[in-house]
Design a protein that fits this description.
- The chain is α/β, with parallel strands linked by helices.
- The protein folds into two domains: 120 residues, Rhodanese-like domain (Oxidized Rhodanese, domain 1, 3-Layer(aba) Sandwich), CATH 3.40.250; 110 residues, Oxidized Rhodanese, domain 1, CATH 3.40.250.10.
- It contains eleven helices and nine strands.
- The strands form two sheets. It has a five-stranded parallel sheet. It has a four-stranded parallel sheet with strand order 7-6-8-9.
- Strand 2, helix 2 and strand 3 form a beta-alpha-beta unit.
- Helix 5 packs across helix 10.
- The longest helix is centred in the N-terminal third of the chain and has 11 residues.
Length: 271
């Protein structure tokens, strides 16, 4: 699930995935080339961890399992590989690779807790330039992680479940909307910014603290939980945090980018 920088230094992974990506920026590959964990392969989130965007599917729809398998083989993943994904944003992008590999039926993947900063703070070195590993042979099949569609997400709050919105609180309230067609949130959803699940060092908060925070949002044992964000990327990070807290949660890949593009869907604003 998670690995620390110290653990990674003591026991190197077979495959390291550098998943640096930020909304509205296209600098991840350049940052990777300037310095990455030794042996790490750059993963392009828009093209390898997503299908092409569309109003009906959202900004980052799930890739087909065949597309994901092809990418994973390019990264050097084979059956039995120990894979660690990282970024420089608290895991908010790397969790997409973690979630997708698990969705594809590959369990041997973990997140580097604290990412690049934790690695360098622990004394880990960086290398520059590109890495082209030998092709892997992994075989993936979809269905390893639970998924919601828009109708499932809409029904969850009225069916006794909890629908968590992992975006920034101001986007949830509808005060700002930098990229999607409409501002606000899905009626019945609960604001749960994924940034609030991280400590000042960029690491996930301890499991006990995470359990308390999610409980305050209505997450109880046995409660069905779904998570969305803008386009299904940072929501994967919240699913990972819930897993650390001992809670299984479903991801809504289309998220707000899908919902807000459909004028027939209602929008709520405010706290």
């Amino acid at each position: 699930m998670l690995t620390s920088a110290g653990e990674l230094l003591a026991r190197p992974a077979d495959v390291l995935l550098d998943v640096r990506w930020r909304l509205g920026a296209d600098t991840g590959r350049a940052e990777y080339l300037a310095g990455h964990l030794p042996g790490a392969v750059y993963v392009d989130l828009p093209t390898e961890l997503s299908a092409p965007p569309s109003p009906g599917g959202g900004r980052h729809p799930l890739p087909s399992v065949q597309r994901l398998q092809s990418a994973a083989r390019r990264w050097g993943v084979s059956a039995g590989s120990r894979v660690v994904a990282y970024d420089d944003a608290g895991g908010s992008a790397a969790a997409r690779a973690w979630w997708l590999l698990r969705w594809g039926g590959f369990p041997g993947v973990a997140l580097l807790d604290g990412g690049l900063a934790a690695w360098t703070a622990a004394g880990g070195e960086l290398e520059t330039g590109d890495v082209a590993p030998a092709a892997g042979t992994v075989v993936l099949s979809a269905g390893g992680m639970p998924v919601l569609d828009a109708d499932d997400a809409a029904a969850l709050p009225t069916a006794g479940g909890v629908l968590l919105d992992a975006r920034a609180a101001e986007r949830f309230r509808g005060e700002v909307e930098p990229v999607d067609p409409r501002a606000g949130h899905v009626p019945g959803a609960v604001s749960a910014p994924t940034t609030a699940l991280l400590g000042d060092d960029g690491r996930l908060l301890p499991a006990a603290v995470l359990r308390e925070r999610f409980a305050a949002l209505g997450v109880r044992p046995g409660t069905p939980v779904g998570v969305y964000c803008g386009s299904g990327v940072t929501a994967a990070h919240e699913v990972a945090a819930l897993a650390v807290a001992g809670v299984d949660a479903a991801l809504w890949p289309g998220s707000w980018s899908q919902w807000s593009a459909d004028p027939t869907r209602p929008v709520a604003t405010g706290g």
